[in-house]
Amino acid sequence: GGRFVLCGLIGGEASLPIPAFDMREIAILGSAVGNTRDIVELVALVRAGKIALPAVERRPLAAAENALADLLAGKVTGRVVLEMHGEG
């Protein structure tokens, strides 16, 4: 059993094996917000090695348009962070 919680409001898709959810009685929930207790629990799970952080790809701010195109095309796994080193 357990819960599969989808968080985020920026789009994306999830491909889920429906029989696995039925057989293991896993609930699918959506969440747009959390609280301090939730983040403390999340950090503890990451530190304990029970969940992995998403991949983070760094790109220069000048590549923002390409990063957005890659996101829309589904070519990004994890997160893209735009860096502003020496800009602005």
Report what the structure shows:
The model has no long low-confidence stretch (mean pLDDT 83). This protein starts with a strand and ends in a 5-residue tail after the last strand. Helix 1 links the parallel strand 1 and strand 2. With 88 residues, the chain is of the alpha/beta class. The protein contains 3 helices and 4 strands; from the N terminus they run E-H-E-H-E-H-E. A two-stranded parallel sheet has the order 1-2. Strands 3-4 form a two-stranded parallel sheet.
Summarize this structure as a short list of keywords or feature phrases.
88 residues; 4 strands; alpha/beta; 3 helices; two-stranded parallel sheet
